[in-house]
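Quick one:
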Amino acid sequence: MAFTSYKQIGAVLKEYNITSIKENYIVPANLPIRDYFKEELEYTLTEVAFDDSEYIVCETLIYPILREVSKSYKDKFTLWSHKSIEYDAKLCGTPDYILAKRSPLGIEIFEEPLFVTVEAKKDDFIEGWGQGLAEMVAVQKINNFSDSQTIFGIVSNGKLWEFGKLKGNLFTKNMKSYSISEIEQLFGALNYVFQQAELELEAMDG
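Output:
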């Protein structure tokens, strides 16, 4: 059973004995957006048929936004695209994007621990979170994280972004979603997630 076999979040909660709650835990952290990026995003939104497939959503919207935010953290993390991970026969597959610790040996090395998984879904957020939470569980187990350490997850169709986190056996889904039409708020939410991942990394290294 791969990540794609989980069609809704309830199946993951039941199989791995995870409790789910909803609350607004994200505190957007301001991150200036370059004018050039805004111009490129506007062009994509008006001139590219990004609704055509998940692949186009990934390459034209989700990845450019993640890449822009990740630039502020390039000394700590590497952003991986479509990198396969496997914990066991049930928890395996290919998240669309993963934020992982940057290896001291170079950017070619897929280094653990992993901190953030990103799943692109054309419009099916129910299936997206089933798959996304399964990916988060896999990362938690691959990292051998304790109950005090947190994994972060994102599900997006490019236009709308939803956020969740897994700490021990508690999954928290942020009630507020963020829209690409309010790009400053979206960048702030993503920057918050990256900051929290950085704090997790520093606690491990410290």
